[in-house]
Design a protein that fits this description.
By secondary structure, the chain is an alpha/beta fold. Helix content is 42%, strand content 14%.
């Protein structure tokens, strides 16, 4: 891994990582084992706290701290709408988590408190307005997440190629690109657009260390290129694989379902049922548009190696 170099990279310097690759904190898929592998290789591994009760997050934080050297950073992804966020914040401070990635809410509420404890804060944004508000709130960097991304998404449907250069031009702080990034080619494209680093989610769902159910992983590998769609904007926009549950959502729209009808259809535990328990019919299967191009399940470190090797090979070709 020492063959890859990112000297003077703002994200690497900010987060004290070797490579400007952040593994996304995906609900039900991003436990301590995956985060450990990515961080050990030189990226920033992330625990997805959005699907964890406080006692579960405490367990994952304890295990990753025992597994990593104190000098190796990792992150926790924290959706700000999480009902027990106060408990999560206190655990993050207690465990001295080096980096927190916030999303789905106002970063101004918690950023100052986290930074007071020496924690770096990154915030996920879907447009330039939110990026500037996050910068004003004092975050250390923003993650510009395009419409291609999996899971919960922005309503604007701005693609990564449009969003990233706009945010990079508007903001003074470092910008991380997210959405549709799975390999060295897409990483290089994001960096050319003005990003200082990339956040990768879907590719890491299909890793050996991902906590996603094997049924979900294999379903992704067999997905066609048009396998996903952004839906449920009336609640919270989410990109889903097209399974039986997704078809129920489409039928609900065709029958002029109200917001309450959609909320009842979604119910509770749909994402856990699909991604963690492997119910491919009734579960909610969140994944990015790149799902149709993922064809293997690899160790996380091999995924990192492949991405970086391809990236550096492309750089070498361009320099010729």
């Amino acid at each position: 891994m020492n063959q890859f170099y990112f000297l003077e990279n703002r994200i690497c310097n900010l987060l004290r990582i070797q490579y400007p690759i952040i593994q996304a904190g995906m609900v039900w898929c991003s436990g301590w084992k995956l985060a450990k592998e990515v961080s050990e290789y030189g990226g920033l591994g992330t625990i997805g706290a959005g699907s964890m009760y406080p006692e579960t997050l405490n367990e994952h934080l304890t295990k990753i701290k025992n597994a990593l050297k104190p000098s190796v950073p990792f992150a926790v992804n924290l959706p700000l709408l999480y009902p027990q966020i106060q408990d999560h914040i206190e655990l993050i401070i207690e465990h001295r988590v080096p980096v927190v990635i916030t999303s789905a809410g106002n970063p101004k509420i918690w950023t100052e408190k986290l930074k007071t404890h020496g924690i770096k804060v990154l915030h996920v944004v879907s447009n330039v307005k939110f990026a500037l508000k996050a910068q004003e709130a004092g975050v250390d960097a923003v993650i510009a997440e395009g419409f291609e991304a999996g899971g919960h998404n922005g309503r604007e449907e701005l693609t990564t190629m449009v969003l990233v250069p706009a945010v990079a031009e508007a903001c003074k702080i470092p910008v991380v690109a997210a959405g549709g990034i799975k390999d060295g080619k897409s990483m290089l494209a994001a960096m050319v657009l003005g990003a200082d680093g990339v956040q990768i989610g879907s590719r890491f769902v299909c890793s050996l260390e991902s906590s996603a159910h094997e049924n979900f992983k294999n379903f992704i590998l067999n997905a066609p290129e048009d396998a996903t769609s952004l839906t449920l904007k009336e609640l919270t926009p989410v990109r889903l694989l097209k399974n039986d549950f997704y078809q129920q959502v489409i039928e609900a729209y065709q029958n002029d379902a109200s917001i309450e009808d959609l909320r009842n259809l979604l119910g509770k535990g749909r994402s856990k049922k699909g991604m963690f328990e492997g119910d491919l019919k009734e579960g909610e299967l969140e994944i990015g548009q790149v799902a149709g191009y993922l064809k293997d399940i690899l160790p996380a470190k091999k995924i990192m190696e492949n991405i970086l090797k391809e990236y550096q090979n492309l750089i070498a070709i361009i320099k010729k």
